[in-house]
Amino acid sequence: MFASYLMYCDMCKLRGWPCKGCRSFISGLDSGGFGGGFDGGFGGGSGGGFGGGAKAAYEVTGTRGQYGGSVFGNKKETMQNLNDRLANYLDKVNALEAANAELERKIKEWYDKQPTTSDGGKDYSKYYSLIDELNLKITNATKDNAGITLQADNARLAADDFNNKYENERALYQMMDNDINGLRRVVDDFTLSKFDLESQFEGLFEEMVFIKKKHDDEIKGTQNTKLSQVSVEMKAQPGTDLTKILNDMRAQHEALAEKNRREAEDLYNTMTAELRQQISAGAGQMQASKTEISERKRTLQALETDLHSKLSMKQSLELMLAETEGIYCMKLSRIQVTISSIEEHLAQLKADSESQHSQYQQLLGIKTRLEQEIETYRRLLDGEGSKQTRDQGQGRGSGSERNSSVDKDVAGLGSIDSGGGRTIRIKKTVENILDGKVVSMEEGVQKL
C-alpha cells in the first residue's frame, strides 16, 4: 500500500486520490501485468493490512469472451482503504513526533531555566547567606528579648523581695510594739504594786509615829502626875514601878514598829528583787526569742529569694525553650513543604518520563510495524517487478497469460495440442506471510 502511494503522481499526492492513469498503472502492477492486454482477461487482487501480514491471491476470473471480463472494483476499494489508513498512520506518526519534539523542547527549556545542583534539586545557594543573616538576627533578637525578660523578672523579684522585707519589718515592728505594750503593762503593774507597798509603808509609818506620839504623851502625862502628887510617906509595901512598865511598853512598841518596818522593807525588797529577776529573765528570753525569730526570718527571706530566682529562671528557660521549639518547628515545616514540593515535582517528572517512555514505545512499535510493512511492500514490489519482467518475456514467446503470487514465479506454459489447438496451463500459488515470514503456501495447476 505504501509502495502504491509512492507511485502516485504529484497531483495525486497533493489531493490524496489516484487519477485514472495511476489507478491503471497500480492495477497493472497488482494483476501481474495482465490486467487488460490479452484476451484471456485474467484479473488479480491483493490485500494487506497493518497487522503485520500480507496476503496475495491470484484468481482466474475468466476470459473476456467466455467469462464476461475482469472485475477490479473490490481491489480498488481495498487499495483506497489501505492508502487512507497508511496516510492516517503517517499523519498520526508525524503529529506524535512533532508533539514529542515540542514536549522535549519545552522540557529542555524548563530545565535550562531552572537552576539545578549536583543532586538534581533546586539551587538554593543564593538564599543561604540571607537565611544565615535572618537566623542570626532572629537569634540576636531572641537573646535580647530573653535578656529584657530576665531583667524584668529580676526587677519584679527585687520588688517582691523589698515588699517581703517591708512586710517582715512591719510584722516585726508590730510584734515589738506588742511586746513593748506588754512590758508597759507589766511595768504599770509593778508601779501599782510599788504604790501599794509605799502606801502600806506610809500607813505603818504613820501608825508607828502615832503610837510613838501617844507613848510620848503618856510618858509626859505620867511625869506631870508624878510631879503634881503630894509626897505622903506611909509604911506600906512598895508599889508597881510605872516608869519601868512604861519604858518596857515603849521598848516593846518600838521593837514591834522596828520589826514591822524591817518586815515591810524585807517584803518590798524581796518582791522587787523577784520582779526584777522575772523582768530580766523575761527580757533575756524575749531577746533570745527575738534573735531566733530574726535569724529564722532572714533564713526564710533568703530561701524565698532563692526560690523566686529559681522560678524566674525556670520561666525564662521555659520561654526560651518554647521560642526555640517554635523556631525549629517553623524551619521543619518549611523544610517539609520544600520536600513535599520537590517530591511532587519528582513525581510529576517521573510521570512525564513514564508517559514519554510509553509514547516512545508506542511510536517505536508503530515505526517498527510501519518499517516491516514498508519492507513487505518493497519486497512485494521487487518480487512483482522481477516476475512481471520474466512473465512478459515468456508471454511474448508463447502467447500465454499467467498470474504470479507474492514472491514466487508462476510457471504458466502455453502448448499446442495434437489437434492444432492452444492449451493454457495456469499454476496458482498462494502464500500467507506473517511478520515477514512465510507461514503457509498453497500451489495448484489448472488447464484451460
Write a structural description.
This protein is of the alpha+beta class and 448 residues long. The chain has a domain at 2-116 and 357-447. The protein has helices at residues 2-6, 10-15, 20-30, 64-67, 73-113, 125-228, 242-398; strands at 43-48, 53-59, 414-416, 422-434, 437-447. Strands 1, 2, 3, 4 and 5 form a 5-stranded antiparallel β-sheet that branches. The longest helix has 157 residues, at 242-398. The radius of gyration is 75 Å and the shape is rod-shaped. Mean pLDDT is 71; it is low at 1-6, 31-72 and 395-422. One of its GO terms (molecular function) is structural constituent of skin epidermis. Pfam families: Filament. Residues 72-113, 246-306, 332-380 form a coiled coil. Belongs to the intermediate filament family.
The parts where pLDDT drops under 50 for at least 5 residues are 1-6, 31-72, 395-422
User: What helical percentage do the residues reach?
Assistant: over 70%
Write the element-wise H/E pattern from the N-terminal end onward: HHHEEHHHHEEE
| Proportion of residues in β-strands | 5-15%
Radius of gyration: 75 Å
Total beta strand runs: 5
Q: Give the termini distance in whole angstroms.
A: 32 Å
Rough outline: rod-shaped
Write the layout of secondary structure elements.
Elements: H1 2-6, H2 10-15, H3 20-30, E1 43-48, E2 53-59, H4 64-67, H5 73-113, H6 125-228, H7 242-398, E3 414-416, E4 422-434, E5 437-447
Antiparallel strand pairs: 1-2, 2-4, 3-4, 4-5
Organism: Xenopus tropicalis
GO cellular component, one term: keratin filament
Pfam family, one: Filament
